[in-house]
Design a protein that fits this description.
Number of helices: 3
Shape: globular
Structural class: mainly alpha
Strand order of the largest sheet: 1-2
Helix content: 55-70%
Radius of gyration: 14 Å
Number of strands: 2
């Protein structure tokens, strides 16, 4: 049970940060794939018994670039990449 909490937290964090979320006075701005993906990867990666932050810090940006290339450009999905920086 202890290893599932970081994975579920990573999925939840990805869901609320990719397009933003508002719950009453709490507002999370849309951060897009450029921020939501590495956050989710690092947080979920902490569920592994042998997790190393250095390896996760290298793995997260590489997987983020692959995800952006796959979902945004190869598949043409309208997922925001970095709305706070480049507007989409």
């Amino acid at each position: 049970m202890g290893r599932t909490i970081p994975v579920l937290a990573g999925v939840f964090l990805f869901a609320v940060t990719i397009r933003g979320y508002q719950l009453g006075p709490l507002t999370i701005p849309p951060l897009g794939l450029a921020v939501a993906t590495p956050l989710a990867i690092v947080l979920s990666g902490l569920a592994a018994k042998d997790a190393r932050l250095g390896e996760l810090a290298i793995f997260a940006p590489i997987m983020t670039l692959i995800c952006i290339g796959l979902f945004r450009f190869a598949l043409g999905l309208s997922i925001p990449v970095a709305p706070w920086l480049i507007g989409y």
